[in-house]
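User: tokens in, sequence out, please.
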């Protein structure tokens, strides 16, 4: 009787050990990140002109990403703005960028290279369109720019796209009825201060440091633009990308003197392509949301990045990695 009992006990012991190993294996699989490699390598983030909001946002996001993704090197690349940014990302010259929703829609509608590969990661903050003139200027509306020298942004910028559309909406020919000056926010304030242009268009988060500095050093004024929203939509054939907005009186206190300015707002999107790894995109999107408050101390517009609205990246489909992040972060 002893031998059968020993065999039974040994069998039970082996079965118990095997079961324990299975439980231990499952526990280790749950606790340890087997198969989940940390993103690594170099990625390029296309920003904007050196003194613009895109560039400063990119610099601060680069610092946050260095903490969250220590094995990833983030390389910033300045640009003329949204239109150039989209072309770079769509054609593989950059991995991530920021661009306005209207510029994205135009790039897709024009069938530009790689347009079908563009994907959204997050809706960020709104740009406010700003038409800046000297305080004693006779310009009170966009239509008053006729025969004036006007800074209209660089060719690859979202500002140029908007300026041309605003002028057309005001029944002005952008090439004939004004003297267009191709310049960015890095040079337009100096051109206005020096009397080399009569006005300039800008579209950016509030406040834009270059405009704020100009308002502190020169007598300037902001021209209302909200009356052109309906004409913009009729001209462009789209709805929803431009909307009336109010520039708060404290955006540029010296220029506004306690008066809010009715203008136009347009959403900024964080953009990548379907080529970008889902794990990397998930972590990148997480850092954008997590770092909102820290970045917002210096780029005030970033404070408006909101988990509840970030998922709405129209007109772009959401990247699979970004969707994975939003599902995991859903309360």
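Assistant: Sequence out:
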């Amino acid at each position: 009787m002893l031998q059968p009992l020993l065999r039974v006990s040994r069998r039970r012991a082996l079965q118990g050990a095997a079961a324990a190993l299975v439980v231990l294996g499952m526990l280790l699989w749950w606790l340890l990140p087997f198969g989940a490699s940390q993103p690594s390598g170099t990625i390029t983030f296309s920003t904007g002109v050196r003194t613009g909001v895109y560039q400063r946002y990119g610099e601060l996001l680069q610092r946050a990403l260095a903490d969250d993704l220590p094995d990833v090197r983030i390389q910033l690349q300045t640009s003329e703005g949204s239109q150039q940014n989209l072309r770079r990302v769509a054609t593989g010259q950059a991995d991530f960028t920021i661009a306005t929703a209207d510029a994205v829609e135009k790039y897709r509608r024009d069938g530009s290279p790689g347009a079908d590969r563009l994907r959204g990661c997050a809706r960020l903050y709104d740009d406010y369109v700003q038409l800046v003139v000297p305080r004693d200027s006779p310009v009170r509306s966009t239509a008053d720019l006729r025969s004036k020298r006007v800074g209209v942004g660089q060719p690859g910028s979202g500002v140029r796209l908007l300026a041309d559309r605003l002028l057309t909406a005001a029944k002005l020919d952008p090439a004939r009825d004004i003297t267009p000056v191709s310049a960015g926010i890095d040079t337009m304030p100096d051109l206005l201060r020096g009397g080399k242009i009569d006005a300039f268009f800008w579209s950016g988060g509030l406040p834009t440091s270059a405009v704020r500095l100009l308002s502190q050093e020169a007598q300037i004024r902001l021209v209302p633009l909200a009356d052109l929203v309906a004409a913009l939509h009729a001209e462009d054939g789209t709805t929803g990308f431009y909307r009336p907005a109010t520039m708060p009186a404290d955006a540029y206190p010296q220029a506004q003197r306690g008066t809010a300015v009715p203008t136009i707002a347009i959403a900024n999107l964080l953009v990548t392509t379907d080529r970008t790894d889902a794990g990397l995109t998930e972590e990148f999107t997480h850092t954008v949301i997590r770092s909102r408050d820290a970045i917002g101390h210096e780029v005030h517009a970033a404070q408006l990045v909101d988990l509840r609205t970030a998922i709405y990246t129209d007109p772009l489909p959401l990247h699979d990695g970004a969707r994975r992040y939003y599902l995991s972060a859903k309360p």
